[in-house]
UniProtKB/TrEMBL annotation:
Species of origin: Marinomonas posidonica (strain CECT 7376 / NCIMB 14433 / IVIA-Po-181)
Record InterPro entries: NAD(P)-bd_dom_sf, SDR_enzymes, SDR_fam
Highest taxon of the lineage: Bacteria
Xref: SUPFAM superfamilies: NAD(P)-binding Rossmann-fold domains
Pfam families listed in its UniProt record: adh_short
Protein name in UniProt: Short-chain dehydrogenase/reductase SDR
GO MF annotation: an example: oxidoreductase activity, acting on the CH-OH group of donors, NAD or NADP as acceptor
Amino acid sequence: MSNFHGLVIGASSAIGQAILDILEQDPNCNGIIAVSRSENSQQNIGKVSFIQCDYQQESIENVCQNLTSWQGKIHKVFICNGLLHDETMQPERKIESVNAAQMAASFQANSITPMLWLKSLLPVLNGSSATQVAVFSARVGSISDNKMGGWYSYRASKAALNMLIQTSAVEYARRAKNVKFIAFHPGTTDTPLSQPFQRSVPQDKLFTPSFVAQQLLTLMNTIPMDNQAAYMDWNHQEIKW
Ligand SMILES: NC(=O)c1ccc[n+]([C@@H]2O[C@H](COP(=O)([O-])OP(=O)(O)OC[C@H]3O[C@@H](n4cnc5c(N)ncnc54)[C@H](OP(=O)(O)O)[C@@H]3O)[C@@H](O)[C@H]2O)c1
């Protein structure tokens, strides 16, 4: 694709940073908008224009209103937001660990925040050229793939994300026909999110953020524009919803 602009949401993520690096070096990429909660991200460097956002509904709506001058010009979107653990919570190993606060935080970061972007971006992405929206999901969000159990909040919030992507794809197909959604599983990637859970992962199955970012960009260049959401992994293989 030539002469495109990119939008990276959750740009402080390790994988998001790797996507920014690749887009920066792509001569076909004319500019990148990077959105993050992080104040440190608040500087424009090279092709990248930074926007700070606290991901409240009104803030997301304001950012997207300010992007209306970009209507039809943003052709690659990456929604990288995700939360697995923080200083107050760890993924649940057993049912007794399930609690309302963790479930609410997980759904807020993993399902609600990406959905608010999909809602507010519709007018910005509605145009005549092919546009791809990659939303970072996870294989553990597949209901049919769930043989291991555990990780209740993260799993359920990624499964909810998958349903929200599917549902958005149905409506976008009527109202913004140029858009293709990808629910993307990056594989286990060496980032702060997976850091506490890497011990059991074989070295050749622990990917660098730059490898995963490159795999996603290659996928976006080759995936058919068929108005349907695809649930795909880092190896360009389909995952069953
Ligand atoms: N690493 C893996 O092995 C792996 C495996 C499967 C799926 N994934 C998914 O890949 C995506 C990128 O993850 P990563 O590994 O690069 O993780 P990371 O470096 O820890 O990045 C975390 C991302 O989530 C956002 N975030 C954190 N807390 C949030 C909150 N409370 N509300 C909204 N956004 C929040 C951050 O946005 P800001 O820039 O605004 O801070 C950042 O984009 C996530 O969706 C994750 O679930 C990762």
